[in-house]
Design brief:
By secondary structure, this protein is mainly alpha-helical. Helix content is 54%, strand content 6%. The protein binds zinc ion.
Length: 139
């Protein structure tokens, strides 16, 4: 099976998601914002961001933290996989918020091909239980 996942840790995943969710806001994402959002210490976030910069997923610019193109793609992949798995669990009878929490622990580890197969299997749903489009983010 082809694995096109980018090798990241759970904490790196959480930082990418936080930066990605904030990308359309008028205020820029700063380390302090990420630390606050994820309830982590500033030096910890600094360290994670440093690794994400090394991996080419994030760039720092005048105190702001931005996703690179590669980082954006990674973010969109994770979101798509998250929503697919969330929808799958929801259809199995798991409460939507519980499904969201649970899937957040492993969404970034799912293979893209597997995610596509799950979409097929559950009848190509358009939206996740929270009403967000599943495929919108897919390139
Ligand atoms: Zn969710």
């Amino acid at each position: 099976m082809k694995n096109n996942n980018i090798n990241i840790t759970k904490r790196e995943r959480d930082c990418i998601i936080t930066i990605g969710k904030n990308r359309n806001q008028s205020f820029p994402t700063r380390i302090s914002f990420i630390a606050k959002s994820l309830d982590m210490k500033m030096p910890t976030v600094e360290e994670i961001i440093k690794r994400l910069v090394e991996k080419g997923l994030v760039q720092k610019e005048a105190g702001m933290v931005l996703l690179t193109e590669k980082g954006n793609n990674c973010y969109e992949e994770i979101i798509m996989k998250h929503r697919v798995m969330e929808t799958f669990l929801f259809e199995c009878g798991v409460n939507a918020d519980e499904a969201c929490r649970e899937v957040s622990r492993f969404d970034y580890l799912i293979d893209s091909e597997s995610a596509d197969k799950i979409i097929e299997k559950i009848g190509k749903p358009e939206k996740c239980p929270h009403g967000f489009k599943i495929i919108e983010s897919k390139r």
